[in-house]
Design the sequence.
């Protein structure tokens, strides 16, 4: 995920953003204040599906939004089956402001 493309809108909506590159870092960082997990399936997306599954199991109400290349149909499908909202890279980048604004809304 392009940190610069997401960090501006996140700041504008008052959403703290942490960019984490490792699976262990993601799962250890999720706490009661975490509102969403944004997962970039662009290579290298090692362990992305298992990370989504583990995050969903540990935090059933956590919003998980995934984006990846439109040609990675199988990987996007696996992410959806694991409980994530799935967008292609193009959809995500076109909607990033709206996605982050929605995350700023109270649950």
Sequence:
């Amino acid at each position: 995920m392009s940190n610069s493309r997401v960090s501006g809108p996140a700041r504008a909506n008052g959403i703290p953003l942490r960019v984490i590159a490792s699976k262990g870092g993601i799962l250890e960082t999720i706490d009661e204040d975490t509102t969403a997990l944004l997962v970039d399936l662009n290579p290298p997306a090692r362990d992305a599906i298992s990370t989504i599954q583990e995050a969903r199991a540990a935090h059933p109400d956590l919003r998980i939004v995934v984006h990846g290349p439109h040609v990675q149909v199988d990987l996007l499908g696996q992410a959806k089956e694991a409980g994530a909202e799935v967008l292609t890279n193009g959809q995500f980048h076109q909607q990033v402001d709206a996605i982050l604004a929605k995350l700023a809304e109270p649950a």
Summary: The helical segments are 3-12, 23-29, 48-58, 73-81, 89-104. The longest strand covers residues 63-68. The chain has a mean pLDDT of 85. The first helix runs from residue 3 to 12.
